[in-house]
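@channel sequence for tomorrow's demo:
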Amino acid sequence: SLVVTQKDQFQAMIRLLNTNVNGNVKIMYALTAIKGVGRRYSNLVCKKADVDMSKRAGELTGEELERLVEIIQNPLQYKIPQWFLNRQKDHTTGKYSQLVSNQVHSTLREDLERMKKMRVHRGLRHVVGLRVRGQHTKTTGRRGRTVGVTKKK
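structure tokens (generated this afternoon):
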């Protein structure tokens, strides 16, 4: 899942976890291009992997990149606390994990399907296409829908 090149060679684009990562950006901010990895999580991963934070992403060696990918995929083995992860107490397995790249999309889709199937309020709002998180809908969010008001003669 990653491309390894010779030492002392700069890469403008790196492929990590099915994502193109810009090599010109510092490593902490470059990792945020991966879906499911934010600034705080990438900062923690870089510290756990002992990667120099002042380096650009394209300057890293293949070994350093492999270490970063390993820590991103298996955070609990590297003593990253459970509360830091983006998938806590999964509904089916009950496990804590960090979802990255394609896993984020597939898990979100599965959760929405589960809510729709159970006929939960949130699932029904998703089906109808209304706001889900308790926002007011009387006057806002009218774009894309026909209002349905006609004047009588």
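heads up for whoever presents: The first strand starts at residue 13 and ends at 16.
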